[in-house]
Amino acid sequence: MGMPETMRAVRIAEHGGPEVLEVTEVAVPTPQAGEVLVQVSAVALNNTDLWTREGAYGRPGDPEALSGWRGPVDFPRVQGADVAGRVVAVGGDVDQCLVGRRVVVDPAIYDAEGPDANPVGLMGSERDGGYAEYVTASAERVHDVTTSPLADDQLATLPTAYGTALGMIERGRLREGETVLVSGASGGVGLALVQIARARGARVLAVSSESKIDAVREAGAHDVVDRARNVAEQIRAAAPDGIDVALDVVAGDLLSEGLPLLREGGRWVIAGALGGYTVTFDVRRLYLHNAQVIGSAMHTPKHFDLLMNLARQGEIQPVIAATFPWIRPLRRRTNSPAGRTWERSSCTHSASGVVPYRRLGERRWWHC
Prior knowledge:
Layout: E1 6-12, E2 21-27, E3 35-45, H1 47-54, E4 77-78, E5 82-90, E6 102-105, E7 108-110, E8 119-122, E9 134-138, E10 142-144, H2 152-156, H3 158-171, E11 179-182, H4 188-199, E12 203-208, H5 213-219, E13 223-226, H6 231-238, E14 243-248, H7 253-258, E15 262-270, H8 284-287, E16 292-295, H9 301-313, H10 328-333, E17 340-343, E18 347-349, E19 355-357, E20 364-366
Parallel strand pairs: 11-12, 11-14, 12-13, 14-15, 15-16
Antiparallel strand pairs: 1-2, 1-4, 3-5, 3-9, 3-17, 5-6, 6-10, 7-8, 17-18, 19-20
Helix pairs in contact: 3-4, 3-9
């Protein structure tokens, strides 16, 4: 049977709430030279999709400006950064042997070739994504996971959340035996950080809401701090000798109060600002103690390769909570916390915690 000419897709034509999501019939994209066409099996909804839809990222010097992940969005845009599926066609200069392969798509658009390139764009923001029946992607950015024991819905939870987590761990140079602090530990990225850090032999100290403490422990945390109480005091009690690495998606007061808890040569890695993006701290804690504050945006190609190796070996286990039809919940559920995945026949979502949700001009906090 030949390829259909049209497909269903969920697009946005402007920034806003769920009401701007439009289910529409569009042409099936044609893979260009160096590209493949992927039939989408499962797609995830995460923080990045929500913030891009709302234009909530802001711009340097103008945090209230409407913006996608890295700048203005070229509307209309098909969202969806996290995609698992099967290659059904290839463009010029691409090996036909890829057809039929089960793949996960690396959603990052990089600034250069090579394993250490930096992400400067994202599928679903700077190019069309996976809220559709088909999506094109660079052949270099699809990873064969045919042998993975993980189901498609599990695979679709990996690119953004687990990619961001692995990028943080690699940039923070986390080593076996070190003590690591994980903030936002019940969220999609946080749970990934806990799992991977524990697997690497680190002692994991996590920060979470009281209601999620058991889930975070089950993911692999050795100790969990209740974020509703004095966090710095609890960290000191749990790690009296200090922490080697902090993997932080919260920033805000946690960064200000937590930096003095770093050991000599400690590394504080930041990949989010759920607690606030304006922070004050004593810089002497850095240069007098050879400490580092490291920004981490998603992952590099090398990091994503490592992640896909973990997926092929089944060494990570994303948490799936429920399933829903793929188009219907995009309107109904995109106000909800991140970490959700949509199969074409069902929508699945991984456990997540507090997620910032901002309508135009305001900030709200959603709890699950």
